[in-house]
Automatic annotation (TrEMBL):
Gene3D superfamilies: Bifunctional nuclease domain (3.10.690.10). PROSITE patterns: BFN. Residues 1-132 form the BFN domain. It comes from the Bacteria. This is BFN domain-containing protein. Residues 129-152 are annotated as: Disordered. It comes from Desulfovibrio piger ATCC 29098. GO terms for molecular function: nuclease activity.
Length: 203
């Protein structure tokens, strides 16, 4: 198994989809995983050390596991088929160690919250490295193509206001209905960038 950690968040400049970047603990290799907007936001909250007054879904799952005398011990990415990664949660409880199928994005969000290892099966990591086209992962630039600095600054300011609104809604346990796939790519990019100041230069 290859031990990894979260390097940061980025955005695919072509598809405008969020990417979570995993890096080998020894710093030699990267593994990009395309994820959903909501998963990117919940990962971003952890990376920035943000704590909400009410638990989100991933927080709740860890709380339930603890209430049932279970503990998350790690997350393993174990397969890669047809451009899809497969992962498992490693849970230890009264029945011993069990594995539960999960999406890698959910597993990463849980691993960050529980401070447990993220590992990738060696064969999966090597296969992904072979199939990855050179130069296909380029973090999106800070400025939009064809836009000037003033336009970009105005858009970013609007995104910050929207991010504050989103944080307030999340704190109340509410999620805007239009935040998912229906959200425009430019809005998602700016919103993610506003929520993830640590990785803003990668967005």
């Amino acid at each position: 198994m290859v031990e990894m950690h979260v390097e940061g968040l980025s955005l695919d400049p072509q598809t405008r989809k969020p990417i979570v970047i995993l890096r080998q603990n020894d710093g030699k290799g990267l593994l990009p995983l395309w994820i959903g907007a909501m998963e990117a936001m919940t990962i971003s909250l952890v990376l920035n050390g943000e704590e909400l007054p009410r638990p989100l879904a991933h927080d709740l799952l860890l709380m339930v596991a603890k209430a049932l005398n279970g503990t998350l011990t790690g997350v393993d990415i174990v397969d890669y088929r047809d451009d899809i990664y497969y992962a498992v949660l490693l849970l230890r409880g009264p029945a011993g160690l069990i594995s539960v199928d999960c999406r890698p994005s959910d597993g990463i969000a849980l691993a960050l919250r529980a401070s447990v290892p993220i590992r990738v099966k060696t064969e999966v990591f090597e296969k992904a490295a072979r199939e990855q086209e050179p130069g296909s992962i380029h973090p999106a630039t800070r400025h939009h193509a064809g836009s000037d600095a003033a336009t970009d600054m105005a858009r970013t300011a609007d995104a910050r206001k929207e991010a504050d609104t989103l944080a307030a809604l999340l704190a109340k346990g509410a999620v805007p209905e239009d935040l998912g796939e229906a959200a425009g790519p430019e809005r998602l990019r700016d919103l993610l960038r506003a929520l993830e100041p640590v990785s803003r230069n990668k967005m």
